[in-house]
């Protein structure tokens, strides 16, 4: 469902993503982890067609991004790290706008919106987006994607700004969608979420994927948490010890 070959993105002389390969099967929850600035968001933007790669190839749903960009975008959903919503619209106007763009302005979608609003405690669709908090915008963005039930969902730090109940509901929904053969690609700094939810994990550091596999593969027979593995693999474990010792 998601395939990248030798994917590279350069900004001038800076290599943000360096010759990476990715392969995600249907119905999997794939965790894409890395420190700040490692290349996670740049990779997602290339996989979803909002940023052109310097080189390499992207296929989503078996379709080449260069040849079928519009078809791919019609069938996927993207929740970015920052909810980008038109400030001058009210909540319900934004959802109607998205329904019209995807040509799904029908009773079935409206019923699904009602169910999602009830689940996430969204009772502010009459409020203007400019008056909403980050968490309120994040829920609105999630609803605008989940109401369509796309075949592949990309989520960049989806739980940031969500209250504990909404974050739990989102995690359970993603598990349910994966059981329905929807493919989930997510980034998160909350390693506990990735460890519990993801079928497979890739860790990127300084633009390169340094390890990829399920938890059993990553542990290599050792009884380590994902947090310990992550800090060890990204060479941050010694830094943390030195910092704590110096305080």
Using brief descriptors, characterize the structure shown.
247 residues; alpha/beta; Rossmann fold; six-stranded mixed β-sheet; 10 strands; 40% helix; 24% strand; globular
User: How many DSSP H or I helices?
Assistant: 10
CATH fold topology: Rossmann fold
If strands are numbered along the chain, what order do they take across the biggest sheet? 6-7-8-3-9-10
- In the CATH classification, which architecture applies? 3-Layer(aba) Sandwich
Main CATH class = Alpha Beta
Overall structural class, as computed from helix and strand content, comes to alpha/beta
Walk me through what this model shows.
By secondary structure, this protein is α/β, with parallel strands linked by helices. It has a single domain, classed as P-loop containing nucleotide triphosphate hydrolases (Rossmann fold, 3-Layer(aba) Sandwich), CATH 3.40.50.300. Helices cover about 40% and strands about 25% of the residues. The protein has helices at about 40-45, 70-75, 90-100, 105-120, 135-145, 165-180, 190-195, 215-220, 225-235, 235-245; strands at about 1-10, 15-25, 30-35, 55-60, 65, 75-80, 150-155, 185, 200-205, 210-215. It has a six-stranded mixed β-sheet, sandwiched between helices. Helix 4 (about 105-120) packs antiparallel against helix 5.
Question: What topology emerges from the helices and strands here?
Answer:
Elements: E1 2-11, E2 14-24, E3 29-33, H1 40-47, E4 55-60, E5 63-64, H2 69-75, E6 76-79, H3 91-101, H4 107-120, H5 134-146, E7 152-156, H6 164-179, E8 183-187, H7 191-197, E9 200-205, E10 208-213, H8 215-219, H9 226-233, H10 237-246
Parallel strand pairs: 3-8, 3-9, 6-7, 7-8
Antiparallel strand pairs: 1-2, 1-4, 4-5, 9-10
